[in-house]
Write a structure and sequence with these properties.
nine-stranded parallel beta sheet; globular; 20 helices; alpha/beta; three-stranded antiparallel beta sheet; 529 residues
Length: 529
Amino acid sequence: MNLRRPNANSATGTFNRSRSVVPMSGLCTDCLDGCRGGCEVWLASFRGREVIYPGPYGQTTQGADKNYPLDYSHLNIHGYAVGAEGMANGLKPDPDDAIFPNVDVETEYGWTKKVKLKVPIFTGALGSTDIARINWEHFSVGAAISGITLVCGENVCGIDPELELDGNGKVKKSPEMDRRITTYNRFHEGYGEILVQMNVEDTRLGVAEYVLEKHGLKTIELKWGQGAKCIGGEIKVKTIERARELKRRGYVVTPDPTVREVELGYEDGAITEFERHSRLGFVTRDGFMEEVERLRKLGFERITLKTGAYSMVELAMAMRFCAEAEIDLLTIDGAPGGTGMSPWPMMNEWGIPTLYLQSLACEFADKLIAKGLRVPDLAMAGGFAHEPDIYKVIALGAPYFKAVCMGRALMIPGMLGKNMETWLKDGDLPKTVAKYGTTVEEIFLNYEEIKEKYGSDFKDIPLGAIALFTFARKTKVGLQQLMAGSRRFSLPAISRIDLMSLTEECARVTGIPHVMDSYREEAEKILEG
């Protein structure tokens, strides 16, 4: 049984001619001489490297569809008929107070200086891809009014068309970075924060110094990788002039826009786009500690780390190094992750899947505690979209995991709201929307709530931000209901005993008891009287 269907996927715009497909290769069982298309092998025969990447670039986000043997659906949440754990603010464990609206879903992260979140979610890294740039106002304002952290991804300064460098090759001015930070900060209300990621090129360009000196950011994030790929970030550019500019700034650009045959291919129209790649990082303990110390001396109050779905060796390095360096938040991104631009074969075939990776992180955290080390606050990323999985992540990873990083799920509302503005303006509402109404007041459930709260500033809140707020509110209420059902009235009250494994394999990997064993001892005692 193949866990995915290779060689044909809408992400790459490819398909099989035949209904009958060889499971391992994805080739049609009857490959026809004269076929007009279009599987990946067929398309790659004349478009080559272009077929590696999903698309159309800047208009889609992608998540691999490999069906891993285990995921969070193999865990279920326990419900209880008695008890009320984690109640605060004078609430009593009785039927009048133990109601789901009283469940507290706020969380916080940080070694000493905490950042609070109204809901235990934050965005994935929204960096240099077009889809992040085009939709930034919707994403950033939405995150701010929802009270969650917004991660500004890598390479934003490096690809800024208006970037100005000083005599030392460091960022002197980056209007795009300025726009991203000020847009979020305008509506920031004390919950969440905007933090900027740094990779190799960002460090060389002095991005940390720029965002600290000009914008006074308190947090910076180092990046080792992500769940969607095991190489640096990529984007596509359309013109050879832009490709040459990025190459001059120190990026890896392919095909090389300075090579004569590439120039000729571009002139002929065969080459229509170029890829900009970031470099691979090389992690050492000493180098990591030195960089953390450098950033602290610059003035950052918090330093976070994002790592990807590497082997358990790199996971152990990340957790041990972060514990020793007193890192404020370690986000662990499992395969396959989500992306605005990653190699499609890599997304499907590399890395430790999310459930396995979190299970390892829990095991390693226990071992660090046993050695007398404090474990930094942890967050999990890698394919999450709904509140049941938020509960499961926090329960499986208790007491170490504080939040879930959501990439594509938090981008969908922003894009939807932006498109809604266009549909309303053009009088072209889809039937899927029009059945709820024909005005924004009718369509958006929380529209009047936001309008009332922000008054004269409401006019500057785009519909994508309202959509993101609405999604975050649904996530909050759904999580409150799940927690009330398991009698957990605050996030710290959730623990591993609140989960059960539905398969023996899940129990073996996660350490969560099988459904037929979970609470058996307690049940037997009751039966015995």
